[in-house]
Predict the structure.
Amino acid sequence: MNTLAKSDPLGTLGLPPGDHWVKFHVEEDTISYEVAVSPPEHSSGTSSPDAALSFVRKWSGQGNLLSEPEMSEDARLAELTAKHLR
């Protein structure tokens, strides 16, 4: 792990422009750090289409609507259901 003083600016990490995941370990006067991941850049800044499809495949068909009696027991749930499920 690399080490720097707590008072050092972040620029001393020497990271190029872009997104980075960095692990920090903070002690009294020093900070140890390790660049965990520098993810590949996406032009839109969002996750890849494969990740979205993977999410849909995993969770598709997993939700169940509650019956009217179940929803009426919880006013907030009934309000959210009326607002978002038409």
Summary: The first helix runs from residue 49 to 59. The chain has a mean pLDDT of 79. The first strand starts at residue 2 and ends at 5. Strands lie at 2-5, 21-26, 30-37.
